[in-house]
Amino acid sequence: MPVCFTQVGAATALSLADPALADPNADARKAAVAALTRHRATEDARAALATATTDPDADVRA
Question: What Gene3D superfamilies has UniProt attached to this entry (predicted)?
């Protein structure tokens, strides 16, 4: 896949997942983490994933 498509996909995932990481529902936060892991090659996705490591729910942190 061309790099430009990967970056667009990562930007879209980040724009959708970023608010979901703060959602009160743990399932929404887990889904956000799952979406971001597909784009962990980008710095922005890694930074967002780093915030999930302090989530109160162990399933989100996993």
Answer: Leucine-rich Repeat Variant (1.25.10.10)
